[in-house]
Design goal:
It is built from 7 helices and 11 strands. The protein has a 4-stranded mixed sheet, with helices on one face. Helix 2 packs antiparallel against helix 3. The longest helix has 22 residues. Helix content is 31%, strand content 24%. A hairpin with a 2-residue loop joins strand 4 and strand 5. The chain folds into 2 domains: 116 residues, Ribosomal Protein L22, Chain A, CATH 3.90.470.20; 101 residues, 4'-phosphopantetheinyl transferase domain (Ribosomal Protein L22, Chain A), CATH 3.90.470.20. The protein has 251 residues and is an alpha+beta fold. Bound molecules: coenzyme A. Coenzyme A (COA) binds next to helix 3, strand 4 and helix 6.
Length: 251
């Protein structure tokens, strides 16, 4: 509903590259059949396999495996290496980045998942953040909005008709979270430090960073609508970056 101007054609096969000035956003399903699961599992590091095993429910294990596996397949394709050869390093709040010299061209990526849907963003431009959420009722939505949203965001949300409240809430949430994920600080960084637009009929905009309008203008913030019932956002510290969005066939 808010990323309405972006098209999501099926991803080309073979996959092809990502240009120096491009941001690729790939939407894919985390529900995959056993052969795909096995292929993804075969690419994981020992640390990732241990993390996969730590999930209590099989679906959690499978979703984590597919998310990491597809990330590895896409990055390996771009770097010309095998998926299992990639090594990840982790920021202070757990953001995975490419590590270990396999990254001469400075690739950045970020992954997000909600229910069965995942978004993967890949670019050479700058550290990138992506967030997706399934639209769903949130019982303490008012309390979360008061805690994490600025007074202006909270007012914009309250001004929406009841039927648009859930979409408005998750639009705000994903736009702010995408910025946090680009910086790598995660939710501890303070969702109230970044102010984003909510007007449903207009493109998403980052309005203020720590109260600073000029600082916000050095960023791109784009709303994404990868599938019915989901909303998302992409953020990176480069102005006017336009994402190229694709659906992995079968989503
Ligand atoms: C981890 C965090 C960065 C994002 O969490 P999230 O929105 O629940 O999860 P997402 O699916 O969007 O992102 C998780 C992925 O981001 C990456 N990631 C992990 N830590 C990250 C960080 N600090 N910065 C950026 N990306 C990070 C990982 O690839 C991770 O997936 P993987 O472990 O399967 O590879 C953090 O901000 C957090 O804990 N958020 C809580 C969100 C919340 O409470 N939401 C309630 C909505 S009502």
């Amino acid at each position: 509903m808010s990323g309405h101007s972006i098209r999501w054609p099926d991803a080309p096969r073979p996959f092809g590259g990502v240009g120096d000035r491009e941001v690729l956003v790939l939407a894919f399903s985390l529900d995959q059949d056993a052969p795909v699961q096995a292929a993804c599992a075969g690419t994981l590091s020992a640390e990732e396999r241990a993390r996969a095993e730590s999930f209590h429910f099989p679906a959690g294990r499978a979703h984590y495996t597919i998310g990491r596996g597809v990330t590895r397949f896409v990055l390996a394709d771009l770097l010309g290496v095998l998926p299992g050869e990639l090594r990840f390093a982790y920021g202070p709040q757990g953001k995975p980045e490419l590590a270990g010299g396999a990254d001469p061209a400075g690739w950045h990526f970020n992954l997000s998942h909600s229910a069965h849907l995942a978004l993967l963003a890949v670019t050479r431009l700058a550290p990138v953040g992506v967030d997706v959420e399934q639209l769903r009722p949130v019982s303490d939505q008012g309390a979360i909005a008061r805690r994490f949203f600025s007074p202006a965001e909270h007012a914009a949300l309250r001004a929406l008709p009841p039927a648009d409240q859930t979409a408005g809430f998750f639009n705000l949430w994903t736009r702010k979270e995408a910025w946090l994920k680009a910086t790598g600080v995660g939710i501890t960084g303070g969702l109230d430090q970044v102010e984003v637009s909510l007007a449903l009929a207009e493109p998403a905009r980052l309005l203020r960073l720590f109260g600073d309008v000029a600082a916000a203008q050095t960023w791109t913030l784009t709303a994404l609508d990868p599938a019915p019932g989901f909303t998302g956002a992409l953020a990176l510290p480069v102005p006017h970056a336009t994402p190229r969005c694709h659906r992995w066939p079968g989503l």
